[in-house]
Automatic annotation (TrEMBL):
Pfam families: MlaC (PF05494). It comes from Rhodohalobacter sulfatireducens. The keyword Signal applies. This is ABC transporter substrate-binding protein. InterPro entries: MlaC/ttg2D, Tgt2/MlaC_sf. Transmembrane segments: none annotated.
Length: 197
C-alpha cells in the first residue's frame, strides 16, 4: 500500500513540472506569435510608407517584450558593478534608445515566416529556437527569456549564432579598455541623440 502511494507521489512530482513547463512554453509561443502578427499587420505590403506614429508603434511592439535592464547589464559586463547608480540609469536609458532605433533599420526582416523549432523552460528562464524565412533566405533567431513578475521578457537574441548582448559587450569593453567608460558614454550619447532626430 505504502509502495503504491510512494509511486504515485513520485509520478506526480515528475508530471507536474513537465506539465507546467509545457503550459509556459505554449504561453511563450503564443506571446511571440501575437507580437509577430501585430508587426506584420502594421507593416502592410512591401514598399509601404510609414508615418511617425506608425514607426513609433512599430518600435513599441518590437521592443516592449525586451528587458533592457537585463540586456544592458549583460552588455556592460563587470563594469556595470563598478559604476554609480546614476551612471547605470543613464547607461540603460541610452542603450534602450539605441536598440529601439536600430530595430527599424531593416523592417523587411519582420515579414519573414517564423517556425518554432523548440521551446525549453527551466523554472523562470526559457530558451526559444526559431527559424525565420524571408524569400529564399533562412535565418536562425533564438531568444533567451526570463520571467519578471509573471511576465516573460526577452533578455537576449541570437541571430545566426551571434548573441546581441555578447556583441555589444565586445564593442563596449573594447572602447572601455582603450579610452575608458566616459568615452563609451559620450559615444552612446551621440548615437542616442541621432536616434531621436
Amino acid at each position: 500500500m505504502f509502495r503504491t502511494i510512494y509511486t504515485f507521489l513520485i509520478i506526480g512530482l515528475l508530471v507536474i513540472p513537465s506539465a507546467f513547463a509545457q503550459t509556459e512554453a505554449d504561453a511563450i509561443q503564443a506571446m511571440l506569435e501575437e507580437r509577430d502578427q501585430e508587426i506584420k499587420e502594421l507593416l502592410g505590403p512591401k514598399g509601404t510608407d510609414y508615418t511617425q506614429d506608425q514607426r513609433d508603434r512599430l518600435k513599441d511592439i518590437i521592443n516592449d517584450v525586451i528587458n533592457y535592464q537585463s540586456m544592458a547589464e549583460h552588455a556592460l559586463g563587470d563594469t556595470y558593478d563598478e559604476i554609480s547608480e546614476e551612471e547605470r540609469e543613464e547607461f540603460v536609458s541610452l542603450f534602450s534608445t539605441i536598440i529601439r532605433d536600430n530595430s527599424l533599420n531593416r523592417l523587411d526582416i519582420y515579414r519573414a515566416e517564423v517556425t518554432y523549432n523548440s521551446i525549453e523552460v527551466n523554472q523562470d528562464s526559457a530558451y526559444v529556437a526559431t527559424t525565420a524565412q524571408l524569400e529564399d533566405v533562412r535565418t536562425s533567431v533564438d531568444y533567451n527569456l526570463q520571467d519578471f513578475n509573471d511576465t516573460w521578457m526577452i533578455t537576449d537574441m541570437t541571430i545566426d549564432e551571434v548573441s546581441t548582448a555578447d556583441s555589444y559587450n565586445r564593442q563596449f569593453q573594447s572602447i572601455i579598455r582603450q579610452r575608458g567608460f566616459d568615452a563609451l558614454m559620450d559615444s552612446l550619447r551621440r548615437r542616442a541623440s541621432r536616434s531621436s532626430t
